[in-house]
Amino acid sequence: MHFSSPKMVCETKIVADEHDAIPGTKKESMMWSSPPSSAALNPAEAKDVRKDAVFIREFELGDQEEVRRIFYEGIMERIPNTAFRGIRQQPKTQFLYALLTVLCFFMTKSVTLTCCAPLILMGARYYYSRKVIQSYLDCALHTDMADIEAYYMKPTGSCFWVAVLDGRVVGIVAAQGREDDNTVELRRMSVDSRYRGKGIAKALGRRVLEFAVRNNYAAVVLGTTAVKLAAHKLYESLGFRRTGRSEDYRLPGMSRSPLERLFFQIRYSRYRLQLREE
């Protein structure tokens, strides 16, 4: 295969949400809707079904503003998740913070300061999570997300899709072909927080898999720093298998200063779905 793709500055990050099973399709434009509760529908019910229909179509230039908004909001959600939920996945950090709290008591002999220590540590985690993630966001918004047409629509072997509900863009996903190992990378998946729980993320993921099959890629790969278990269950439900994990991943935009290393840690997981043997 001979695919050309632009050099990316930022690495892959995925934002995904909870999902339900939905029917797939191999059409260029994909539509799905919530199944009716009975075989027969009255006119009012039929209107509701049409209203709930979600279309997956290729990106158009007029989508740029909404696409960037969905991406921005999805990444910003990662700040509290990384700062607070993320610490549950970091036993070494928990131990270190507990040790610092104990040392605070022995050094100050103040119960008040010791009780405040965990709050100060969590505040520092939030500050550095916001600092690093905003730096990453700025990087993404000035590279591929600044010109989706150039990064994903023009190069052969790559594409960008949007999910549309009732005329409104509610979800996004990209596929970027990699010629060196004949794989396609699933990137930039995000769903508007107001439309989650409808299976949109899974529909977008399936669209990438269909694209990979049609273009004879050997596998689909992705990398994620998602903290929520629902995101990982989504990838597994699509057939992906985890192939690696890094506990101290360097997110683009990190300075790796001592304070940043103390208050910001993130887990990076790699997934792969093998489509055929090379």
From TrEMBL:
It is an enzyme of class 2 (transferase). Keywords: Acyltransferase, Cytoplasm, Endoplasmic reticulum, Membrane, Microsome, Mitochondrion, Transferase, Transmembrane, Transmembrane helix. It is a single-pass membrane protein. Signal peptide: none annotated. It comes from the Eukaryota. Residues 119-265 form the N-acetyltransferase domain. The keyword Acyltransferase applies. It is found in: Cytoplasm; Endoplasmic reticulum membrane; Microsome membrane; Mitochondrion membrane. It catalyses: L-aspartate + acetyl-CoA = N-acetyl-L-aspartate + CoA + H(+). The chain crosses the membrane at residues 95-128. GO terms for molecular function: L-aspartate N-acetyltransferase activity. GO terms for cellular component: endoplasmic reticulum membrane; mitochondrial membrane. Its EC number is 2.3.1.17. It holds the Pfam family Acetyltransf_1. PANTHER family: GNAT FAMILY N-ACETYLTRANSFERASE, N-ACETYLASPARTATE SYNTHETASE. Belongs to the NAT8 family. This is N-acetylaspartate synthetase. The lineage of its organism: Eukaryota, Metazoa, Chordata, Craniata, Vertebrata. The gene is nat8l.
